[in-house]
Amino acid sequence: MLAHQRAWLVFLMASLIGTLYLGVETSYLFLYLRDLGARESMMGTAMAVMTVAEVPVWFLAPRLLRRWGARGLLAIALGAGAIQALCYSVMPAPWVALPLQLLHGLAFSAMWT
Known about the structure:
The protein is mainly alpha-helical. Helix content is 85%, strand content 0%.
C-alpha cells in the first residue's frame, strides 16, 4: 500500500511544502512589493523575469533529471525556494525582487519536472 511506503510519503510531503511555498509567493509577492513602494511596471517586469527564468529549466529538464534524478531535482527546487523566501524576508528595496525572480524559475520548473 502506498501510504505505508516511506519514500512515497516523503515525496508527497516535499511536494506539498514546495507547492504551498509557490502558492504563497505567487499570491503575496506583489502585495509585498507594493508595500515596499514598487510601481506596477516593476511588478510586471518581475513577472516577466519569473516567466522567462522558467524556460531554460524546462528546456534542460531531461538533462537535469539524468544528472540529479527526481529526488535531487526536487531537493534543488526546495532549496531554491527556501533561499528565495529568506532573501524576500530581508529585501531592502523592491528592485531586489528582480534577480530573486530567477530563483523562482528554478524552484517552479524543477519542482514540477
